Amino acid sequence: MTSSSKRKEESHLLNGGVKQSTWTKAFNSNAIWEEKDEFLDVIYWLRQIIAVILGVIWGVAPLKGFLGIAIFCIINAGVLYVYFSSFQQIDEEEYGGTWELTKEGFMTSFALFLVVWIIFYTALHFD
Known about the structure:
Number of helices: 6
Helix content: over 70%
Keywords: Endoplasmic reticulum, Membrane, Transmembrane, Transmembrane helix
Number of strands: 0
Radius of gyration: 18 Å
Largest sheet: none
GO cellular component, one term: endoplasmic reticulum membrane
Distance between the termini: 66 Å
Protein name: GEL complex subunit OPTI
Shape: elongated
Structural class: mainly alpha
Order of helices and strands: HHHHHH
InterPro entries: EMC6-like (IPR029008), RCAF1 (IPR010742)
Subcellular location: Endoplasmic reticulum membrane
Low-confidence stretches: none
């Protein structure tokens, strides 16, 4: 039996045979992800939440231009990298490598960030 399937079986027995919800697993360190798509969905939605939060902050604090975009990209990629490599400690190769996980849902979160940033900036800092 491989180590990952053994780990899944042990986790299932520790939970009393009850399946954990996706969000419970998302906020538990070293959670067992039976389905690959389930973990990728968590990465996608966490990235969207980060985009909204940073868009509001950037709009309230009148941040402009390339500096705002660059800081968003660094924070967005950095937080998710720390999440899946240190907090969840998953095997990146199982999901196509570090780059695949880092870019999962990035463009939609970037678009959402820009929309929220523009709306808040325009609403609060009009001339």
